Amino acid sequence: MTVFFRKRPLLAVLAVSLLVNAPARAADDDLDELRAAPDSNEWQLIKNDRRHQIKLYAKRDLGKRLRSFKVEYEAEGTLDALARVSFDLPNYPRWFFQMKEAKLLRRVSDREFYYYAVHDAPAPLPDRDVVLHVTIQPYNPKTGYAMHEVVSVPDYLPSKPPYVRMVAENYSVKWTPIGKNRWRNVSEGYVDPGGVAPDWAINFVQRTAPYQTVLGVLRMVRLEEFADGKEQPAFSYGRYQE
Fold this sequence. Notes:
By secondary structure, the chain is an alpha+beta fold. The protein has one domain (about 10-225): START domain (Alpha-D-Glucose-1,6-Bisphosphate, Chain A, domain 4, 2-Layer Sandwich). Helix content is about 25%, strand content about 35%. The chain contains 5 helices and 10 strands; from the N terminus they run ααβββαβββββββαα. Strands 1, 2, 3, 4, 5, 6, 7, 8, 9 and 10 form a 10-stranded mixed beta sheet that branches.
């Protein structure tokens, strides 16, 4: 999951996020959560959106300079609809937080592929790019879930200045059925944008990016083109029957 705001000076981004688009108390709460972000290796709840039933967690693993994230939520739709949203690369900029571009590099099978993405970074920082390897585990009654895993492959392509190649954008996305066309999602991972950027700013945006991306998923999966599409998804989670 990408971790950057649109092109604006960093202080302006924080000012807009904390002072203009939210009440003063909410801004103070955000800053308090940032200051109190955990440094232990145990998951700590840092955001609880009861309206959308989204919970966001963070922790700092030993040997990593930045925090890992975990997000939990529920979504409605068929498994094919979830796959259409999850693997329709050209549409990623419509919902994936601050993603400018996503394009397929290599299709290995309907369960494995490589793609290239560009993330928008705040000025004056250069935008980031990344090559990602995606593997899909189709739904299996024995495991009781479908999932896909994303791992960055920094050396897959030569660097493309002025972009900075990301060190890591590694995460997993797991869908578990909890009712008719209803799914529980647990996604967790670690992102390191590489290059030079203040750790506190990266950690702050890491708190925002997973949450905003989840809101994008929930919005997209309700759209007719994804919910009721007649074509098979480009890459499949397999079949689920109650």
